[in-house]
Write a structure and sequence with these properties.
Elements: H1 3-29, E1 44-50, E2 57-63, H2 67-76, H3 97-102, H4 105-114, E3 115-119, E4 122-123, E5 125-128, E6 139-144, E7 151-156, E8 167-171, E9 177-181, E10 186-190, H5 204-235
Parallel strand pairs: 1-8
Antiparallel strand pairs: 1-2, 2-6, 3-4, 3-7, 5-6, 7-10, 8-9
Helix pairs in contact: 1-5
Length: about 240
């Protein structure tokens, strides 16, 4: 084969390696969009914090992911008619639903049943604040524990009784994070002291290091192909 033929083969191989390296890097560094957390749309969110004025109180704020999920909850609680759920599974939401559901005793009882807080296995009593904008801001529950809290266990089972595919993304003090779901409905949260680590995804620096190793391996393979090509030409 002519030197030009070897050069074309080497260029083609280098291009293939570069494309593969880009694909590996993209697959490693890509972060799933929050909407992919459950199959129905945006996930629920939960924010957990200690009340600075009342050290024995843990404040939990829950917000629904989508208005159709809120309407489905209203149907399950008997607050909305069942014909809101269409034959194809779609749920009809109306702008008056949030106020109706938010002011109900049924929602308050459901929140206290599905979200619980314990301090060293001692249950904390919950009190639901009347929601002012349930669909947009969510609902807040204050849990009063037997004494000042440092670390608590918070269980969240919101909507998983309707479908186990629901997920809730939770945040807490010091950058703590967790994902609640069916079978993973309980997490410990450090509310005071030094920065703590929760159930988080790998950090960006670790991801970049993994990508660099993958790219380096592919480049080494390209170099080996180039060296073998030179040796074959020298022998010829």
């Amino acid at each position: 084969m002519s030197p030009f033929g070897h050069r074309r083969r080497l260029i083609s191989a280098a291009r293939a390696v570069a494309l593969a390296a880009c694909a590996v890097t993209a697959s490693i560094t890509a972060v799933p969009a929050p909407a992919a957390a459950h199959p129905f749309g945006d996930p629920q969110t939960v924010a957990i914090a200690r009340d600075e004025q009342r050290p024995e109180v843990v404040r939990v704020r829950w917000r629904v992911g989508g208005t159709d999920d809120l309407a489905l909850l209203g149907v399950s609680l008997g607050l909305l008619p069942r014909d809101r759920v269409m034959a194809d599974g779609a749920v009809e939401y109306r702008h008056t639903d949030a106020a109706l559901i938010g002011s109900s005793e049924e929602l308050a009882a459901y929140l206290l049943q599905q979200i619980t807080v314990t301090d060293r296995e001692r249950p904390c009593a919950g009190a639901v604040e009347p929601p002012k904008a349930l669909a947009r801001i969510g609902a807040t529950v204050d849990y009063t524990c037997p004494g000042p809290v440092g670390m608590v266990t918070v269980a969240v089972r919101m909507l998983t009784d309707l479908n186990p595919a629901y997920r809730a993304l939770a945040t807490g003090p010091h950058g703590q994070r967790a994902v609640y779901g069916s079978g993973e409905d309980s997490h410990d949260w450090v509310l005071t002291g030094a920065r703590a680590t929760g159930s988080t995804s790998p950090g960006r620096s670790a991801t970049v290091q993994i990508a660099a190793v993958a790219v380096g391996t592919l480049l080494a393979a390209a170099l080996m192909m180039w060296w073998r090509s030179r040796r074959r030409r020298a022998v010829a």
